[in-house]
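Hi P.,

Sorry for the delay on this. The queue was packed all week, but I finally got your sequence through. Input first:
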Amino acid sequence: MKEQMMLISKKEYEGMKETIEILQNPDMMSQILESEKNIKEGKIKELKY
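Then the structure:
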């Protein structure tokens, strides 16, 4: 089987690394899930400028 390679920008790579770090952090994930729950329950409203 031939090895395959993909080229991505540094910005995209850094974004993927940051996403992985967040997904592996239980405290951050808990905060994200709590925020999503609050949005669904209408406890958070959009700020209009």
